[in-house]
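Before any further analysis, we paired sequence with structure tokens, yielding the entry below:
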Amino acid sequence: MNERLRRTLQQALLYAYISAVSAATLGVLALREWDIPAPFPSKFWNAIAAFVLLGVVSESFSFTIPVANVRTSVSFVPFIASVALFQHPWPMLIGGLTALVADTFVRHKPLIRVWFNTAQFMLASGLCSWVYTALGGSVGLERFAFLPLPFACLVIVYFLVNHGSVALAVSLSSGVSVREAWDRISKNALATDLLSSMLAVLLVFLYVKLQLLGLAILVFPLFLVRQLYQMNYRMQLELEEKLELMVKAMEARDPYTSGHSLRVSEYALAIARELRLSANAVDDIKRAALLHDVGKIYEEFAPLLRKEGKLTPEERMTMRTHVIRSAQLVDTATRLRGSVQAMIRHHHENFDGSGYPDGLAGDDIPMGARIIMIADTIDAMTTDRPYRRAMPLARAIEELEAFAGRQFDPQLVKLVSKSASIRRLLGTDRGAPEASPDTPRVPRPAWAQRIAQ
């Protein structure tokens, strides 16, 4: 499937999905009886306006999380609170109007995003309102009554619908698995979301007792929660930036491998995503791939990295210790111990057990290490080195297939040989030519003596 056809199909599926969400939203609106107060008391309309305004303000102070340009905010607090204060369809209309105003006039989002966000906010508010009232939850502006079970179910349904609908949209638009999209949107923030939702109970109580003054009292706690979310995501971004800086410092020793670790991490990320691994597993593999050679920053490897000729047997033995040195260096960072450290230590273990440093074989080798070995080899074979020219991707795939079951995991080789993601990365980044019948076959020792180090 060519790239243009793939994107067209992806866009068609996304539009079909958004249409389905919109249809479900209209169904929830139409199938429940509307509660329209008469004669439209000013207290009711003041409350509606106040909650829309609070929702818009909460949405306006959203921030981007690192997945498909998705933004997150604490607007779920007034949305959840509105379910306990207003009968159907008003919670849906508050959610929809909030998204419409914030995305159109504050964030200036494209029409497709405005459409989807409006629909999914309305759907989440409508379904959790139905569950809340069906379980006997109290609704009204006049008195406060908190029942744990209806409220707990309200919160669970809201986050399942809201996060689930966004995760599916991200999967359709970006190509990542639904599992990874869900993890990135929900997993790390789920506990904070559930705890923060308790502010909705406080918001209902304060509004029943104090009206607009109650909303004003809660603005500061909402701002603190928003800062907590942002600090958590900012720490993750700072970690990635520090890792890349460390790798650049190491690669500055060897101009021929400049950018190698970053490319290996991109290939490993693509393979991990095609395996539909969890977000945590994907992130660990990406970090391990980025740091797989970081031990080469030690001085003992400097002359070996700069040497243009073949390494002597003694030099090769020294070079092999880089996996242990890399793992030891990574061990100094608490967040990288465990699986990341193991992947780095074992990324030169051969599938048949002939690798190093521990001679692991088959499934005893961590999956991430098997992925990194293939990603490392692909980059080594498809880039120019002092001792040989770059191979075309087709020839590199032939080499992987020739040593599948011995050096490489045969299932991963099969996946990579069909991987559109790997082809896009190579084609976009360096425009590697495809093999022709006249392309000379590069003998394995020409690249293996360096790669196997």
In short: The mean pLDDT is 87.
